[in-house]
Structures are given as structure tokens and as C-alpha cells.
Amino acid sequence: MVITRFAPSPTGYLHIGGLRTALYSYLWARKNGGKFLLRIEDTDLKRNSIEAAKAIEEAFEWVGLEHDGEITYQSKRFDIYKSYIQKLLDEDKAYYCYMTKEELDKLRESQMKAKQRPRYDGRYRDFKGTPPEGVKPVVRIKAPTNETITFDDGIKGEISVNTDDVMDDFIIARSDGTPTYNFVVAIDDHDMSVTDIIRGDDHLSNTPKQIVIYKALGFDIPRFYHIPMILNPSGKKLSKRDGAMDVMEYKKEGYLPEALLNFLVRLGWSHGDQEIFSLQEMIELFDPKDINKSASAYNAEKLLWLNSYYIKEASYERVIKELKYFDVDLSSIDKKEILIDSLRERAKTLKEMAQKTKNILDRPKNYDEKAVKKFLKNDAKEIAEKFLIYLQEYKGKLRTPLEFEEALKDFMEKNSLKLKNIAQIIRISIVGTAVSPSIYDIMAVVGKDELITRIKNLINFMEVNNE
RNA sequence: GGCCCCUUCGUCUAGCGGUUAGGACACUGGCCUCUCACGCCAGUAACACGAGUUCGAGUCUCGUAGGGGUCACCA
Questions:
Q1: Fewer beta carbons below 10 Å: N end or C end of chain A?
Q2: What is the nearest nucleotide to A304, using C1' and CA?
Q3: How far is the CA of A166 from the C1' of B4 (A)?
């Protein structure tokens, strides 16, 4: 049984790096038919963990990751931590330290002055005397001295450190009795039966400390996988300044969740030359041993490319559903399939697609200045008027793009016009700019009557504009 | 600074002792064309450096340089 977990601290939202870690944990659990657990690391009571949990669940729901079982809140487990601390105290594997914060700071300072590494000196490690009055003690663990700790990281390989280099008798309970991070992580991962810990490699240096706790309590040590960080495009650590850290921000910007997941899974992981992965394929193919050792930079263009790929692949129903989020309701539009197909080729995000949809569905409020200057000159007005009359007198069916195309061809033939002479005039009349999908498509989408109205409007505009 | 980790095109990566070092994004050119896109075709572009091991090294070993992480009564 493989049990993985995702254990964010409640910052209020799920960020992109966290989502990738969660995704890897999720995939590995699902691939092995195991469980994927969620835990909120809220030992710092000042932060609102309920809000954070909600935000994370909302993000998980959007991308389609499901965690198993109830969410574990560390804030509700203080009694459990306390009993484990007492156990270590009773077994003489931990001890009270009466050194005050001031004394500690002083010690640190003098060590730094002597160019030594700041380090607790272990003065209460074997203390038997009467404790000083009025000092609330912290609890420190008796960390092994000059011992080599070795573990086999599933990504980085064998890692081995000397305890003297990386730890002192670190604090497991503060003077107010609350437990510290490295302690609770070890307890929780054990209590939740986590077998495979997948986390960012910024935790690599915490691992030996947690192993010390595992050993002191006689717990089995899980497998560790330390995945490299995600860097910003300039190769620095990703921070809020780089924008769009919140996963839900991607929804607002018009990204499809499958594009985001596909992008994230390929950041640091690959399967040969394959670029496109459905969630199902990811589950089948994912293996942490294929994760790269080095950090990878966030590449916004690739995400956009992936997003446009998935927009092109999406069903009509899906597109209509997603567009509603951007206040565009296509469900009752007659030629919605034509509209969707011509727009999905031109939009990299749903947000963009929604805007372009509005540009076609709504009458132009004004006409693009450059387009007017370039295309509405000479006999443009005359051509527009002729075409207007032609449309008004047209007897045949005029509904599909093909029918519009044939009508236009007939019109051009009768008036010895080239497509170049009229295409932009029609386009501007419909959308107000010189850029749009095929004029046949948009003529069919707005329909004959609306087309006539828009051409009239343009003629009016040209009249006014010329005076 | 100590300790730990990392290093293939600009970016994401393939490679697991013998390859014209492959793919993708981006970029450039071409085709298509009613504009803009899509699509298709083509092109530019990388093994950080230095020693070894080996008949042979991007691949193994060791250095050097550079980058990152971490050293709290934060998580």
C-alpha cells in the first residue's frame, strides 16, 4: 500500500509549486491504488486554517484532484503531540532545557563572533540539579552525536550527513508547550501511515531531524522523494512577485485545468518525447524515479501553448460551459458550433475567446481607426451600398458559411469586384476591426438580418465621417 | 560561512560508454490564405570548465566554477 500526503501550511491559497507537489503525490498514490491524504499544518494558531483548507479544496476541485478521507488538522492534535513528548521525556530521550531566549541569543552571538556555527551547547542535556526559578522550559530531543544518518532519496539518491554538521539538540516543544514543526511532521506522517513522502527539496535538510524523531519513537522510516523547486523565468525562486501564484488565478485568466496539470507534470518530469498527457495517462505513466534532479524554470509560453491545445480539443459542450464563467452564454446562439470552431483556433485562453466572442455577437460600438483609414476609402462606401442592396434583394437561402460564400462570389462577379476589395469592408462592418475569423463564418453567425443592420451602420458611419 | 543538492539548445527535456546529440515551447523563413490565427514544411540553437578511467565519455571518477536550498521557541 502506497500512502502519500500533501501537507501545506495555511497561507490562504494553493500556489503553483504546491499544486505540482500535490499532483505528484496524487499520481503516485493513484498509480499504486493507494491513498492520497491532505493535512493542514496549522500549528501556528494565528492563521486561519479553515479558510486555507477551503481554498485548497476549491483549487483541488477545479483541477480534479481528489484526496482520500478527512482532512487532518494539526491544530486539533495537540494532545497527541503532548503524549509523544511525554513519552520521550519518560524514556530520557528528551529533556527540559531551562535556558532563556536571552541566554540563547547571547550564546549564538558569541559563537558567531568566534566564527563558529550557532549551536545549542547541550548544557541541560544531562542536568540533574534544581531548575532555575521562573523559567518555563522548552523540551529538547537528545540528538545523536557524531552519527551518520543515511537515507535513500527516491530522486536524489543516497544522502548521508553527520548529525554534528546538521543538528543540535533541537527543540520539540516550545516553552508554552506547543510542539514544533519537525516533530509534528514526523508524528503525523507516522500516525497517518504515510509510506511515501513527496515534497519540495527545500525540506531535504529537515529530513535528518525527522529521521532522528522516527528513530527515537521506534517508527518505520518512510520513503522520501525530494522534488526540485520551480524557478521563475529568470532562474530565481518563484515568489509572489512573479504573479499568478494562486492556482485559482489561472481559472480567472482562462486556463483549462488539464492544461495546467499537463504543464506542471512536465516541469521536472518526462516520459520520453511525450508532451501531452491526460490525467489518466499521467497516472499510468508517472514514476518518481523519472523526476529530474535539477530545478526547472516556469515557462509561461509553454503553458499557453498547452492551453490552446486543450481549447482546440474541447467538446462544444465543454467550451460553452467554460465560457459561461466569462459571462458569455452561447447555449441559445444559432450557429454556435461555427463560432466556437473559428474562435478556438485563434484564442490561447478562454478569457481571450470570450472577448472575441463578444466582439462578434455584439454590434461594434466604434470602428478601429487604423482599419478605417486603411480599408474604408475610395469606393468603399459605394461597394458597401451595392452589397447592402444585393443582400436585401437576395432570394436564395442565406444561412451557412458556404451559402454566404456563394452569394458573395455571385455579387463580386456581377460587379467585377475582387475579394480583396470587399472582404475587409464586410469584416469591419461586423466586428469593427480588420481582424476576425473568416468573414463567411461570422456572416453566418450573425445572420442575414443582423448583417444588413451592421452594413447599414457602417454606411452611416462613413457618411458622417466624410462630412 | 558550515552542511546538503544541482549543471544537455533561450526554456521544458530525451539520452542510461560508440547517436549527424532527438523532441517540445519560443524564435526565423516558406506554404496555405479574405485579415488574424490554426495547420503543414524547413531552419537557427546545447552537453559549464579542467583533469583522469577507457580503444572510445554528454554518459563513469575527481577537482574547479556557477546556481539553489538550509542552518529559529517559522512552517
A1: C
A2: B25
A3: 9
Q: Which grid cell is A444?
A: 453566418
Looking at residue A114, its pLDDT comes to 84
Which CA-bearing residue is nearest the C1' of B2?
A117
pLDDT in tens, A115-170: 888 899 999 999 999 999 999 999 999 999 999 999 999 999 999 999 999 999 99
Give me the pLDDT at residue A12, please: 79
Confidence of residue A245 (pLDDT cuts 50, 70, 90): confident
Nearest nucleotide, CA A273 to C1': B23
A240 part of the active site: yes
pLDDT greater than 90 at residue A242: no
Please tell me the distance from the alpha carbon of residue A450 to that of residue A23, in angstroms, as a whole number. Answer: 48
Q: Which nucleotide is nearest to A120 (CA to C1')?
A: B72
- Residue whose entry in the numeric block shows the C-alpha cell 448583417: A451
Q: What is the mean pLDDT of residues A56-67?
A: 96
pLDDT over 90 at A34, yes or no: yes
The dihedral sign for the CA sequence A375, A381, A385, A386: negative
Coil, strand, or helix at residue A458?
Answer: helix
CA atoms within 13 A on the CB side of A101: 4
* CA-based nearest residue to A27, from A70, A67, A62, A61: A67
Separation between the CA of A172 and the C1’ of B74 (whole angstroms): 13
Tell me which residue of A309, A300, A195, A183 sits closest to A256, measured CA to CA: A309
The Cα–Cα gap between A356 and A169 comes to 62
**What grid cell was written down for A257?**
485545468
- Domains of chain A, CATH where assigned: 3-74+229-302 (3.40.50.620), 77-227 (3.40.50.620), 316-466 (1.10.10.350)
Rounded CA–C1' distance between A211 and B2, in angstroms: 21
Identify whether the C-beta of residue A314 lies closer than 8 Å to the C-beta of residue A258.
no
Contact, A146 vs A104, CB < 8 A?
Answer: no
Mean pLDDT for chain A overall: 94
Beta bridge partners of residue A230, listed in sequence order? A296
A335-392 residue pLDDT tens: 999 999 999 999 999 999 999 999 999 999 999 999 999 999 889 999 999 999 999 9
The residue assigned the cell 509572489 is A240
Q: Count other Cβ atoms within 10 Å, centred on residue A152.
A: 12
Closest-CA residue to A320 (of A345, A297, A343, A348): A343
Please give the radius of gyration of chain A, using alpha carbons only, rounded to the nearest integer. 32
Q: Looking at residue A422, what is its pLDDT?
A: 96
